[in-house]
């Protein structure tokens, strides 16, 4: 089941990879608002799968960061952490830990979103048989080709769990200079380490530096 989840998420990543790790800055004149956004797909390893995993990771988390600056001049970055798996009783916990080397801090979710749905897949198999019939002319042969097609549709139940966290302003400089960063999360009582690759950490630093520059420019 975990392999099916990974395949589904890989399809999603391939179709959206052009926007991953890109810091997007928008100036919305209609709302008189500036915003900074970035999305990432982070690989994670489970404590419960140590030594028996078939790949170098067990889960893929979709992470979205967003900062909105308007007349309220927000003092936090919104972090949306989303996980899609086959349906299971455990859900993504409401507490996560950001680990910077030897130090860490805890965030509590401010909003939980859950959705169950069925992912359908269709498999089609075709077979061809050939029958040779002799015509009136003994030297001629007529070939009759028949083709049969079998279509099978299966449905797998999936669930998407999303937790929303708020990163306070006093931590912006720490993220803007972060190295060796990881997120410690839990699915029920299953511990999961979500790690950043070098290019993903670089993108995260760029995002928070952009947020800091906007806040400083706004005074």
Explained architecture:
The protein is α+β, with helices and mostly antiparallel strands. The protein has one domain: Immunoglobulin-like, CATH 2.60.40. Helix content is 19%, strand content 54%. It is built from three helices and ten strands; from the N terminus they run H-E-E-E-E-E-E-E-E-H-E-E-H. Strands 1, 2, 3, 4, 5, 6, 7, 8, 9 and 10 form a ten-stranded antiparallel β-sheet that branches. It is globular, with a radius of gyration of 25 Å. The chain starts with a helix and ends with a helix. The N terminus is likely disordered.
Descriptive keywords:
about 220 residues; Immunoglobulin-like; 10-stranded antiparallel β-sheet; disordered N terminus
Kindly estimate the percentage of residues that lie in beta strands according to DSSP: over 45%
Distance between the termini: 51 Å
The CATH architecture designation is Sandwich
Structural class: alpha+beta
Which regions are unreliable across 5 or more consecutive residues at pLDDT < 50? 1-16
